[in-house]
Every structure is written in structure tokens, then in C-alpha cells.
Amino acid sequence: MQFWILFLLALAVSSIGFKKFVWFISLGYGFSIAALGVALVVMFWDALTPPTALICALFVAYGLRLGLFLLHRERSSKDYNRVMRTQVNDGSGLSLPVCVLIWATCALLYACEVSPVLFRLAAGGATGPSTVAGALVMVAGIALESVADLQKSAQKRRDPHRFCDKGLFSFVRRPNYLGEVLCWTGVFVSGATALSGLAQWAAALFGYVGIVYVMFGGARRLEIRQNRNYGADPAYQAYVRATPILIPFVPLYSVERFTWLKG
């Protein structure tokens, strides 16, 4: 029952995507995660321990930071809005049933992403080393993503027509996406030892594998865009040949050919 409450809450928050299609997966994503963090605290107040309380607080902080960051960028960045108008599907060609299916799938994904914490709390909230480790990995992921976003904004202010290759971007080309993957890896680890039964494992794995797939799909989309914008620049070609696209120290330098990745 608690899982479906979270699903309905994610549906309600992410319904802003009917005003602007991309909001299903941008503002709707960030604010849904924040709302689900609040809901977990309300539903399981008596079962919270310091590690699970921290994770719920991180859901709220993560979701609000992401949602407000995206809102600010949408309102203030001309380059971002140009890209959104010309290179991102605005949903105008989709029928209402398809939009409803996308809306429901997104809300289900968001509920499944936080489900490892839900299932731990529903089982009594007992915590152990995996919960603490997961919370710490989550903190590291959110910090990495936040710093990467700040570094990218600073580099774009200095030189809006150059690709980002300084700071964290010198180690991996998508450090903000790597932070996202780390964050949800921490969430999965924090609740994995509390999962029981096929349904709980299916929900937790759908949430984790789903968000990792989305991050790799987003990395492919940005790679295609950057190849189009900077492909003739020898400095960019040297950068992409030497810098992994998403996972540091793993020699995966391109995912453009993986057409099964959507994002």
C-alpha cells in the first residue's frame, strides 16, 4: 500500500509535464523525489534511524536542488532554451494516450528509485553497515553532481562556445551524470539487505537499472550534440579520445553507436 501512495504522489507532482512535455523528466523528476522524501518521513516517522533519516533528507535536498537548478537554467539560459527548442522533443507530435503512458512510466520509475528505502522502513527500519555505506555513497554522488553543475555553469559563463573540459570534466565527460549514478547506487545499497520477495526486488531493480539506463541515454544524446557542435575542433577530438564518457578509468569513450540507448 505504501508503495502505491508514493506512486500516486509522484503522479501528482510530475503531472506538470502536461504543461510542458520535458517537465515530466526534469522539473517533475526533481520535485517528485523531494516530495517522496517528505512522504517517507511522514509515513515512517517512528521507524526512522539516523541513517534512514539522513537518506530521506537527502531525497528532499537532492530533489529541490535539481528542480530549482533546472528551473533557474530554463529561465536564465538562452543557449539552453535554444537547444530545448531545436534539439529536444517537445511532445507536440505525441497523442494523449502516449503522453499518459510516459507520465505513468516516469512516476513509476521515481517511486521505484526510492523503494529500497521504503522497503527498509516498512520492515521496521533496522539499519546496519549497508545502510550507512549507502547513505555515504549517496552523499558523495550528490556532492559530485552539484560541483559538476557549478563547474559547468562557470566554464560556460567564461566561454559559452567551448566544450567543458576543466575540473571534474577532465576526469570524465559527464561527471554530473556519474554523480547521479552514484547517488542511486547508494540508495539501492542502503536498502538491498531489507528487500524481500520478487515484487520488492523487481521494484528496486527497475528503479536502479532504469535511472542508470537514463543516464547513459542522456550521455549518448549529449555526445551526439557535442559531436555536431565541436566535432571539427582538434582539441575536442583529443579530449574525447582521452576522457571516458561516464565512468572514470573505464575505457568507454563513446556510446553514440549504441542506438538502443534513449534519453
Automatic annotation (TrEMBL):
Q: Which InterPro entries match?
A: UstE-like
**TM regions (residue ranges):** 21-45, 51-71, 92-111, 131-148, 177-195, 201-219
Keywords for this entry?
A: Membrane, Transmembrane, Transmembrane helix
Tell me what this protein is called. Answer: DUF1295 domain-containing protein
